[in-house]
Amino acid sequence: MATKNIYLDNAATTPMDPKVISKINDEMINDFGNASSQHAFGRKARQVVDQARQQLAKTINAHEKEIIFTSGGSESNNNAIFGTARARQNIGKKIITTKIEHPSVLNPMKRLENEGFNVVYLDVDQTGHIDLEQLKKELTDDTILVSTMAVNNEVGSIMPLQKIGDLVKDSNAYFHVDDVQGFGTIDIDVQKMHIDLLSVSAHKVNGPKFLGFLYERDGIEVSDLLLGGEQELKRRPGTENVPGIAGFGVAAKELNELDKADIQKKYQEFQKIILNELDKDQIDYEINGSINGQVSHHVLNLWLKGVGTYSALTNLDLAGFAVSGGSACTAGSLNPSHVLTAMYGADSDRLAESIRISFGRFTTQQDVEEFAQALVKMCQRLAKR
Predict the structure, then answer these.
(1) Same domain, yes or no: 94 and 196
(2) In this entry, which stretches build a coiled coil (predicted)?
């Protein structure tokens, strides 16, 4: 039993940074103006929004006018995908993505297929990476969009964004990156990587929920998803959430001051603690994906042989540890992970016997050590083989 409830599900959401909470609280108390109003209250709110926009633009080497605040990663992804499809269908109807994208990318793609678009889903290998040769082959003149995540949310694989960007820049397509998992864990430069559209969510980086942004490269054509007023540089209607945006700006400032290599090194040590404990006690497991090469170490996905995912999650939860499944678990029924299915096939035992552990800025070594010991005890108790 953990000495306290220990949170190791940071790929799902992260606890808010106390500095972010303080900033949001201050704004709610002291600044209630509408950022579109012309009077002093409105101008003050506008300054807050503009400052946060500058801070966020800096994190990805963008210009502040290219940052559009949204309700989060899902809206940003939908806006990028549908907006591009609507604006560019006269050029072509081919879109390229991968088999392991987030549902907020895959579900819009399914709808576009129903509307007559040709969507190509790139395969991935057993480390969760695409084959650039397949992308080259599929990148034809009628391709209007290439959409890929920066970091996979289940296995941590980092997509070769620079190489994809180099390929796409010489084509007719826009390059969209779902950076919800990558933001804060790896460095991304939208200029160097030739990225046209990029989606981010605040709650993955110790900011508030229901808030994100879409980076839209200046000069590209994207249709608006929502219609209304002229907020967000006339590209996203709705009164801005000024306190939340202020908090998001603080979260971005904190990110700008962190060395991503140091963060990855810390998470890599956390992975080793868990794996060493499993090895020491001869637990039968395998890593889903890889912990070497182009991966973000904030995610560790394990196949615990003979231990059902639902049993593992339930037992760990009762012991005080929060992790998630390699599969999506709902009310006791398991839906196979589309990511693990793409990597290992629909018949793999991994689909029903995997868990995802994910670290964050506030995860401590003691948290990880306690978890590793509890994980071993659980596997010894539950393993069927």
Answers:
(1) yes
(2) none
Among 256, 277, 293, the domain boundary falls at 256
Query: What residues are annotated to the active site?
Result: 329
Question: What pLDDT is stored for residue 79 in this prediction?
Answer: 98
Closest C-alpha among 208, 210, 212, 206 to residue 179: 212
In the chain, which residue ranges form alpha helices assigned H by DSSP? Answer: 18-30, 40-60, 73-88, 103-114, 132-138, 161-168, 231-234, 242-256, 260-280, 309-318, 338-344, 365-382
pLDDT in tens, 199-223: 999 999 999 999 999 999 999 999 9
What tokens were used for 128? 């969760």
Closest CA to 301 of 284, 286, 319, 321: 286
- Kindly give, in sequence order, each residue whose CB lies less than 8 Å from that of residue 291, ignoring residues fewer than 6 positions away: 268, 271, 275, 297, 300
Burial 179-213 (b: 16+ CB within 10 A, else e): bbbbbbbbebebeebbbbbbbbbbbbbbbbeebbb
Give a yes or no: residue 1 inside a domain: no
Q: Which amino acid is at 83?
A: G
- Per the confidence metrics, is the pTM higher than 0.90? yes
Distance CA 329, CA 335 (A): 7
Report residue 16 as tokens.
């808010």
